[in-house]
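Teaching note: in complex prediction, the entire set of molecules is handled at once rather than each chain in isolation. The prompt given to students was simply: 'Predict the structure of this complex.' The entities are:
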Amino acid sequence: MADDLTIEPQTHESQLSVVSSQLQSTMDNGRRTTDHRPQLVRRLLRLWRMYAILDFTLLMANMKLAVIWYLSDAVINLAAVMALLLLAERFAGIGAWTKDQVIFMLGYATVVSGLMNVLFGYNVLIISRRLGRGQLDHTLIQPQPIWVSLLTEGFMPFSGSSVLLPGLGLLIWATHRLALPITLGWLALLVLNLAASSIIVMSFSFLSGSLAFWAPRAAEEISSSSIRLLTQLKIFPLDGLGPLLLGGLLTVLPVGFLAWYPCRALLGLNPAGWSGWATLLAALIFAIITVLIFRKGMHHYGRTGSQRYSNLGHRS
Amino acid sequence: MDALVRNATAISDIVVELSGVCKTFRQKQRSERLRDAVRTMLRPPIREVRALQQIDLQIRRGEIVAYAGPNGAGKSTTVKLLSGMLAPDAGAVRSLGMDPIRERVRYVGKIGVVFGQRTELWMDHPIAASFEWKRVVWDIPRPRYERMRDLVKELLGLGEFFNSLTRELSLGQKMRAELGLALLHEPELLFLDEPTIGLDVLAKRTILGFIKDLNRERRVTVMLTSHDMAELEQLAGRIVMIDHGKIAFDGPFERLRREVSDHRRLLIETANGAPPVLSGAELVRSEAGRHEYIFDAAQTRIATLLEQAASQTQVLDVETHRAPLDEVIADIYRQWQR
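The expected output is the structure of the full assembly:
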């Protein structure tokens, strides 16, 4: 017990390094739990189940409003891709892309948006709001690694599916019309690419959103602006762009990886066999950079805390 | 005496220990003048706010400690340090034998935190849903959860609105639910940051009574901040006062009154309208033969004042009152500001 109360002499720097390792410690927890992976998986499933029930009961609280809201959300999101669809219809495709290939790409892009809505609601995706509004404190007092909270708390499989379902519809329709030779390997590659594109969206949002660690007021809405930018641009085929612009759209603003590039690979428009894995590699690189920057942000947060708090309910 | 008591305390009884804790915040300064705004655009002047300076504090198991001080004194910073939300710049924080930052996940499972101006409740769901959420996230075994849920429902009177939407509840109902939520996992240590802010007398009484019972029956250690001194005195045996980041007082309320001053009010009713002149007492109010004085009982004996009054006029009635603690504290804050 005496050991418990031993006060370790700690310098300022050592304290800060402890704070900066908060995110690391969440990873450590993850690493520790690799020995108990089934428990971690069970915990994640339990949390997702609970958030799914919360989402369902919220939707069912007022059925009439829920239906109106759900349908209008689906219409708005489909309308966002309709302009390109009409162009493809009018000109029998866009550039090198046939009409059905364009539909496939729009479906893919919509599914990525849908996955984001389903998995990362309640301002998890728009992380700058949580940081800027001082709401990270709520996450810090939960007895679980931060990444577990962020991975599960925004799960909205019912109210968030108004984008995912139409997206899946488009994707299946286009696949059928294209008469693609669907194999288990191709389906796995599709799923992996969708996951990779989602990780890139998440990373981009967290990368820009991390600015809110340093400028909570000014950067409170930066994640929503970033997401809007990606959403608006990701539906366009990028063929024919110069190397500089294309390079920019695959790195600085990684729009190309959210639909265009993975769809080229999945539709066999890229000659290189490894192209199906390029989006996965990009996702890995973006995720690593994001973790590093977010850790730096956590380091800063541990030092300064939050100087402001917006009492909007900490998930909105 | 206090030091002796503390030295005699078993080490295992100390649940919170701050040693030489310092915390400084840096605030950018802005000027309203255009010229200054441009000049300081890249390098704005920085003001350092020393929120905590060499804080040493120990809290024993089962204590209720009132943590008070004027706005900006460092109260919330301390609570954040102890809740694992903030790291000290220097010094060490140990609580329940753990480092709140390094062992955050394990540590926060053993504490309860309630911020009066923040909520953990799900606003668009009934209280019942927030409780269920807590059970899953905190991984509380179901029998233990059900026992605690029923207990807080009964003691805090949550039953009548347990299935109502949080958004539709009154402030008092929300705060009762908030407190119940914070206790579901049976924390050993409870941090309450202004838990009764904005509540009416009845709601305050319910919450304070509950905290007191909880402490008595379950030995939950409580650290409570509030601006309502009467409330703090009613609940806590010990008050720690912080000013400009330093502990200015640490001891029982009685000693606080004694050390600062023992201000009392003297109300005299006389036959004629003129107030008697009393040396050692200050006339506060005089109306229709009723005269109110304030005096320091440590300096001036009440009998002396009454003798003076009786020698000047016919005294019909006399009342004395201790000054409310709020006045004592206001005096202290005024002294600190000087």
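Point out the following to students. The interface with chain B takes residues 1-2, 4-5, 7-12, 15-16, 18-19, 22, 25-26, 29, 43, 46-47, 50, 54, 57-58, 61, 137-138, 140-145, 302-305, 307, 309, 311, 313-316 of chain A (CB under 8 Å). DSSP finds 14 helices and no strands in chain A.
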